[in-house]
Amino acid sequence: MLIPILVPIATFLMVLGIVYMNNQTKRAMIEKGINPYELEKPSDRPGKRLRDALFFLGAGLGLFIAYMIDVFLIEGGNTTALYIALVALFAGAGLLVSYLIDQKNRSQNESI
Fold first, then answer.
1. Which of 12, 24, 52, 100 reaches 20 to 30 Å from 110, CA-CA?
2. C-alpha separations of 29 from 23, 25, 40, 42, 43 in Å
3. How many whole angstroms separate alpha carbon 51 and alpha carbon 49?
4. Dmax (CA) of the chain
5. Distances (CA, A) of 36 to 2, 24, 42
6. Low-confidence ranges of the chain (pLDDT < 70)
7. Please, where are the H alpha helices in 32-47?
8. How many Å apart are CA 89 and CA 111, to the nearest integer?
9. In this structure, are residues 51 and 95 in contact, taking their beta carbons and an 8 Å threshold?
10. What's this model's pTM, rounded to 2 decimal places?
């Protein structure tokens, strides 16, 4: 009965605490003469966006195929394992494709 009240309050307090600690850290760095914004580097790793995109495309494709199998091929029954397995399988396949593309790009850059 208290859970619908306590969960939002706890979530709000957790976010508030994280923001407060982050500001305290930046304030301490400024007091020591360090610019905190110079230390925050954007993620410039090549292929990161491709890896993330292929991961989510694979997970989405796995979810879609699991749904189609659930609706059209399996009537009744517990299909939770099917969803988990296909999402993991296709997300892993997306990561594998990303790795192979990255290796191909690296080998082409080394040969130049």
1. 52
2. 10, 6, 13, 19, 22
3. 5
4. 66
5. 40, 11, 13
6. 40-44, 112
7. 36-39
8. 33
9. yes
10. 0.59
